[in-house]
């Protein structure tokens, strides 16, 4: 290869080097901005997940407390005479589900 063609190749390579260097300088701030945005979004996501977990935990505790109160409520209804274990759903082969209701109260007028 001649000296002249080597000099031409060298100039092309230096030009390509400058172009790539400028491209890297352009990408650096963009990369930093995107990195900050990613970390901000990730932190918000973690905060949101923590809040969801806390709400879910408190909901489960509340639900458990309500379930614990059901036997006491049933016992109170039995004491007051308002609970009748016969009030339940029965299955009928052709008609489906039928609810049987019996009142514990006497009629108002005889």
From TrEMBL:
| SUPFAM superfamilies to which the protein is assigned, alphabetical | Myosin rod fragments (SSF90257)
Query: Per UniProt, which keywords does this protein have?
Result: Coiled coil
Q: Which domain of life is it from?
A: Eukaryota
Q: Which residues form a coiled coil?
A: 3-30
Look up keyword NAD and say if it applies: no
Its recorded name reads Coiled-coil domain containing 169
Q: Which organism is the protein's source?
A: Suricata suricatta (Meerkat)
| Organism placement in taxonomy | Eukaryota, Metazoa, Chordata, Craniata, Vertebrata
């Amino acid at each position: 290869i001649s000296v002249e063609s080597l000099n031409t190749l060298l100039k092309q390579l230096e030009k390509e080097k400058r172009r790539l260097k400028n491209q890297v300088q352009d990408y650096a701030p963009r990369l930093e901005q995107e990195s900050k945005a990613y970390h901000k979004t990730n932190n918000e996501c973690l905060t949101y997940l923590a809040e969801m977990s806390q709400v879910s935990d408190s909901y489960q505790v509340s639900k458990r407390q309500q379930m614990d109160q059901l036997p006491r409520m049933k016992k109170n209804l039995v004491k007051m005479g308002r609970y009748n274990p016969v009030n339940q759903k029965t299955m009928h082969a052709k008609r489906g589900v039928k609810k049987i209701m019996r009142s514990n109260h006497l009629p108002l007028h005889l």
